[in-house]
Design goal:
Elements lengths: L1 H18 L8 H4 L6 H12 L11 H16 L12 H18 L7 H17 L2 H8 L11 H6 L5 H19 L28
Length: 209
């Protein structure tokens, strides 16, 4: 009996693997291209966005909205069942700080869900990229953007530095790339191999995670 159970264990594990739902695909804007592994494409893009503290984002409002949308998606992937759910907590905490930094810079509701915040930012980025004045006005009027002394467009044009986002995206990109290279990756990343280390907490109520 014990021998049969031992023989069945790998099969039961494979069945669990097959029945575990894949995480939802991210919006194409975030990766910038169709890819079987959007996580690495988005991490690469995010690390480039926030290189030198996000200096390249100055006076580029559409790109700024897209960059912070990527932060929201990355932060959301630490939730249970998502691509980064099993990363060590140090990366989770860094992502939490980066998300909070992005929300503060753009005046986003601190308790918004990651999906809602990402959606509002992508809507703004797309409208600004098209130069559609009516769509821009509608996107920036979202209740997810807090009223304040600075208009949202001003914040998008001059968001300030993003030191926490620079650290978080670079470290996370490098660690995921290392684990991919060593095939120590979770199946939810759509790459065969082992799983990440454990993480037991979300991004916390202050960021809607």
């Amino acid at each position: 009996m014990k021998r049969r159970l031992l023989l069945l264990a790998p099969l039961l594990g494979a069945c669990t693997e097959l029945t575990t739902p894949r995480p939802p695909e991210p919006p194409l804007d975030l990766a910038g291209r169709i890819t079987a592994n959007p996580l690495m494409a988005i991490l690469d893009a995010a690390a480039a966005d926030f290189d030198q503290g996000g200096a390249r984002l100055l006076e580029r409002p559409a790109e700024t909205a897209l960059a912070v949308a990527r932060l929201e998606w990355i932060g959301g992937e630490f939730r249970p069942g998502r691509r980064l759910a099993r990363m060590p907590d140090s990366y989770l905490f860094a992502a939490r700080r980066a998300v909070a930094e992005g929300r503060e810079a753009l005046g986003l509701q601190p308790d918004a869900t990651p999906d809602a915040a990402m959606g509002a930012l992508l809507m703004a980025s797309r409208a600004i990229s098209r130069g559609d004045a009516a769509a821009i006005q509608g996107a920036l009027a979202s209740p997810l953007f807090l009223a304040g002394p600075r208009p949202v467009m001003s914040r998008l044009r001059e968001p300030g530095a993003f030191p926490d986002a620079m650290i978080a995206t670079t470290a996370l990109r490098d660690e995921v790339a290392r684990q991919v290279a060593e095939t120590q990756v979770d199946h939810r990343m759509m790459v065969e191999g082992q799983i990440f280390g454990t993480s037991t907490s979300g991004l916390g109520p202050g960021t809607g995670y």
